[in-house]
Amino acid sequence: MAPDAEYVHAAFSAIAPRYVAVNHILSLGVDILWRSRAVELVADWKPSSLLDVATGTGDLALDIQRELPEIEVLGVDFCKPMLEIARRRGLRHALCADAMRLPFKPARFDVLTTAFGLRNMQDYRGALHEFRRVLRSGGHLLVLDFSIPEGVISSATYRFYLHHILPRLAGLFATSASAYFYLGESIERFPRRGAMCDLLVDVGYSDAVCIPLLGGIAAIYFAQA
């Protein structure tokens, strides 16, 4: 079943004040390394304009803004409490907007990134179509998101942690643990590895690539519009 937009909005609004700290604690800081790899890929493409969709509290957009100051970076999210934190953290350009109906003309951006956001959208295919609409021809899409490791033992162990341990750990730090129970469900639903690359190609992107991270618990996907 697709994520419910109202639930996602309410859940992330509730955890916004402690979202950054809790994520770093639960990942032991590995999420910082994942975003660093994403920034390296963006740098290789040498864009002049970049849209970070579902920017949340601005983690990836801020990394790009800091490391690649020559790029015009704009972050969008439909959750105002998250955006307010992104602005306070220093994101210069942030806009409240729905990822399914981006308020931009076609071919507006050289690169579009989304970190841990596509998974929360009601219609993955529809969102990818909308992303492609605002990308120039030959522009790049980058998706960073969670996955499930391959292998019976590794996947079973990770699933136990994901569904039974992580939400309870999160409850010790966050004001509400419900979003972290939802996290496991959303990761299970999300297309991964070859399935995501196939979806990107089916939508109209080319040269889709998957880079597994930390044994496959996350992945970077990128492709050209």
What would you note in describing this structure?
The chain is an alpha/beta fold. It has one domain (5-224): Rossmann fold. It is 48% helix and 21% strand. The protein has nine helices and seven strands. The protein has a seven-stranded mixed sheet, sandwiched between helices. α3 (30-45) crosses α4 (59-67) and α7 runs antiparallel to α8 (178-189). The longest helix has 22 residues, at 152-173. It is globular.
Please summarize what this structure is.
The chain is an alpha/beta fold and 225 residues long.
Distinctive features:
single chain; 225 residues; alpha/beta; Rossmann fold; seven-stranded mixed beta sheet; 9 helices; 21% strand
Largest sheet: 7 strands, mixed
CATH architecture annotation: 3-Layer(aba) Sandwich
> How many β-strands, per DSSP?
7
User: Which class in CATH terms?
Assistant: Alpha Beta
Structural class, from helix and strand content? alpha/beta
Q: State the distance separating the first and last CA atoms.
A: 28 Å
Order of helices and strands: HHHEHEHEEHEHHHEE
Beta-strand residue fraction: 15-25%
Which superfamily, in CATH terms, is the homologous superfamily? Vaccinia Virus protein VP39
Strands side by side in the biggest sheet: 3-2-1-4-5-7-6
Number of helices: 9
Helix content: 40-55%
Q: According to CATH, what is the topology?
A: Rossmann fold
Shape: globular
Radius of gyration: 16 Å
Low-pLDDT segments, ≥5 res: none
**Total number of domains:** 1
Mean pLDDT: 87
